[in-house]
Write a structure and sequence with these properties.
single chain, 116 residues, mainly beta
Amino acid sequence: MELTGKITHVLEEKSGTSARGPWRKQEYVIETPGEYPKQICFMVWGDKIDQFGITEGQELTVHFDLESREYNGRWYTDVKAWRVEAAEAGGPPPGEDKPPPPTEAPPTDFDDDIPF
């Protein structure tokens, strides 16, 4: 999934050590444009924090996965970014960056012996 918007908050980085070793994560809030803007908090893990270099005020397109898990009868949802890129001004709306359909018609002369 992806969304485009402006980074409105950069939250404090968190880190610790688990059974699998050290970890770090940082959360950001992105606001979508439009008549009814929405704010979505997403997170970035590990080395991608430095790689993406996200700062407040940036216009970005964030590609993310949603993941929910249950703990003690309550459900928690994470929005985990896996790619971040600068928003393109005047580009296609998010989700509409698919390549155009082919302009050539597929071949219609087949060499098999099926009569239909």
